[in-house]
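INTERNAL AUDIT FORM
Audit reference: QA-55
Scope: verify that the stored structure record matches its stored sequence.
Auditor: D.O.
Record contents follow.
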Amino acid sequence: MSALRAYPRLRHGDHLRAWLYTIAHRKATDAIRRSTRRPTRDLDGIEPPATSDAEPVDDGLWRTVRALPTKQRVAIVHRFVLDLAYAEIGERMGTSEEAARQNVSAGLRRLRREVPA
């Protein structure tokens, strides 16, 4: 279905088999990731850890994430904090899966530039 939706935007049909294989590979990877996630209901009845009075260590990464443009920040948090697939990120953000991938990619590029290694 994803391939059929994306077909009108396909620029060159020279490598159609590789294009379809890439889509199928990404969909299979997303399905495997989705199936291996543990549901949150397994955590019912478990109390959260007690908060300490110590100031949490922030090496500047989260400050930089908060400074990202909204779409990039939301996409980064959905992908790496909530561990959502790109299709789910796009659905939550009201964009396409491709746009979700682009927002995550752009956010990561910016973080790599701004956060010292």
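Auditor finding: record pair retrieved intact. The mean pLDDT is 81.
Action required: none
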